[in-house]
Amino acid sequence: MSRAITKSALRALKPRDRMYELTCSRLPGFVVRVLPSGKKVFLVRLTVGGRSRRVRIGAWGPGLTLEAAREQALQIIANKGAPPRDRERGARATPLPERHSIARREPTPASAYERSKPTPQPTVRALSERFIKEYVDVYLRPGTAACYRLCLKNHILPALGDRPFDTVSRRDARALHASLSDRRGTADTALNVLGSLYTRIVDDWELSDMRNPTAKIRRFGSRRVERFLSPAERRRLEAVLEDGLRIPPGKKGHLERFSVWAIRLLMLTGLRRNEILSLTWSMVNWQHSALFLPETKTGQRTVVVSREVLELLREIYETARNPNGLVIRGRNGNKLKSLNSTWETVRVNAGIPDVRLHDLRHSFASDALMSGVPLAVVGELLGHRQPSTTKRYAHLSSSVVREALETTTRRIVSASSATPTRTRPFVPLTDRQWRAIAPIVEATRKPGGRPVDLRATVDGIRWVLEHKAKWRELPAEYGTPTTTWRWYKRWRERGVWAQIEDLLSDSGFS
What is the pLDDT of residue 451? Predict the structure, then answer.
């Protein structure tokens, strides 16, 4: 946009959702930039050595009038962004006067260019100290704050700390991210911390109108691990917990009662580990069957709990008799520190070595969805701030809907005598259909497991479902009934079978 920059034109410029610029038609290269905050900044745009360059003059206001900004712009344009050359370099030097006749000179007022010369900008290291003091230590939880400090110390400051903050470009941020590609989680964290620092610099402190250098840089993303306990695994887990309580202290396999209580609370509430370990009796509202959590990952929460959870809490209360302290505590009365090591032992003894402590939370969500609880309600139970976080369980919700739909349609078909029975011959998978589903099917094999023809297994499952037959009626060409049923059960629990049906439908199978 180009027009004459006058006082009336400046006053008429209104802020928009995004930054925009107005170039002066009377003095090409003289620019005013309007920020979304309403701030108006004078710049000079020029080309030096074939490269485009911008020189910031300052923000319009009492300290910088339009006339002063235009004068500085003229000087900068005349000198092409560089200080004026000494045109009297070859002039004859004048002799110095006598010592006693030297008069005291008044300091020469700074030229327009000197006034416009940009002062050295603070470094990333200097601003990171302000970032920690004014933002990290004030607004972030202690664990997150410690992570930010560590990331700044180990990754960001060694790479960018001594650079003026306004010289850090998107290329520099991308290079930092790529340098940590062997630790993808750390790389994404470093980019997020750097982006948070520049959000403070640009938006909160208004030190620059530059673009955040981390904007639109693609993150690696974390691989979401979803592991849900089956009913049989839950029974084995509960048996291990009961046996561990009965084993005397000092004997192999003994479990401390507070560790067992913590695991059971995690299973029954779906809360995060730290939310259970930090729970105090003052947070338990017996009258309303709820837990008041003043500080969680997503802020303050009130968690409604079931009758079974209240009974477990009452058992802990009556046994521990510590009404003013932690619900779950260590031997010295402080926060329990050994829960992770206890879980390592428990999961091995229960035959579920791949189940993490956090998977108890995933299993809580899985059981809720498989019981017909809507996805939005599950998100509320888990305390998810964003609905997208809960959508990782959407495939479980879809399987519940699919099963209900199949049950309904079978009931309608069986009740309607006018509906003819479909008797089309069974058609095994075509090569094209198998190529469509092979990647997700083969990915479910366990390393070192018994070799099974999974293509035949898929056809066997389809045969049983299409004929509404019993598993023992499965033809031998598709494998044994027991093996086929186990694969079907595994794929159903993991949501793989729903993906197979969708892919087959897309590839022409109906």
Answer: 80
CATH superfamily of this structure's domain 2-78: Integrase, DNA-binding domain (3.30.160.390)
Q: What is the pLDDT of residue 169?
A: 93
Instruction: Name the residue among 296, 325, 291 with its Cα closest to residue 310.
Output: 291
Name the superfamily (CATH) of residues 231-394. Intergrase catalytic core (1.10.443.10)
Q: Structure pTM?
A: 0.50
* Gap between the Cα atoms of 242 and 236, Å rounded: 10
Separation of alpha carbons 132 and 176, rounded Å? 20
Mean pLDDT across 443-461:
85
Across 31-42, average pLDDT: 90
Between CA 299 and CA 463 the distance in angstroms is 51
Same fold: 2-78 with 231-394: no
For the chain, which residues make up each domain, given as ranges?
Answer: 2-78, 124-204, 231-394, 427-506
Question: What are the backbone angles phi and psi of residue 132, rounded to the nearest 5°?
Answer: -65, -45
pLDDT score of 414: 67
Residue type at 203 in one-letter notation: D
Which segments of 105-182 does DSSP mark as H helices, in order?
112-116, 124-131, 137-139, 142-151, 157-160, 170-179
pLDDT at 461 over 80: yes
DSSP secondary structure letter of residue 164: B
Q: Which two tokens stand for residue 319?
A: 């046994």
Torsion 228-275-285-261 (CA) sign: positive
Nearest by Cα to 205 from 145, 116, 126:
126
Alpha helices (runs of H) in 416-471, residue ranges in sequence order? 431-442, 454-467
Among 70-84, 313-327, 419-433, 494-508, name the most confident range: 313-327
Strand 301-304 and strand 290-293: the pairing is antiparallel
Q: Write out pLDDT tens, residues 211-223.
A: 899 999 999 886 6
Please determine, for residue 117, whether its predicted confidence score (pLDDT) is greater than 70.
no
Residues 6 or more apart in contact with residue 342 via CB below 8 angstroms: 255, 256, 259, 263
> H or E segment at 48?
strand 40-48
Q: What is the pLDDT of residue 295?
A: 78
pLDDT class for 141, splitting at 50, 70, 90?
Answer: confident
Both structure tokens of 312 = 């477990």
474 in Cβ contact with 481 (< 8 Å): yes
Torsion of CA 37, 43, 47, 48, to 10 degrees: -120
Predicted confidence (pLDDT) per residue in 249-262, tens digit: 888 889 999 999 99
User: H-helix or E-strand containing 303?
Assistant: strand 301-304
CA–CA distance, 264 with 421 (Å, rounded to integer): 49
Measure the CA–CA gap between 265 and 247, rounded to whole angstroms.
21
Rounded Cα gap, residues 201 and 39, in angstroms? 15
Count other C-beta atoms under 10 Å from residue 174's C-beta: 15
Q: How far is CA 78 from CA 41, 52, 60, 201, in A?
A: 20, 16, 22, 32
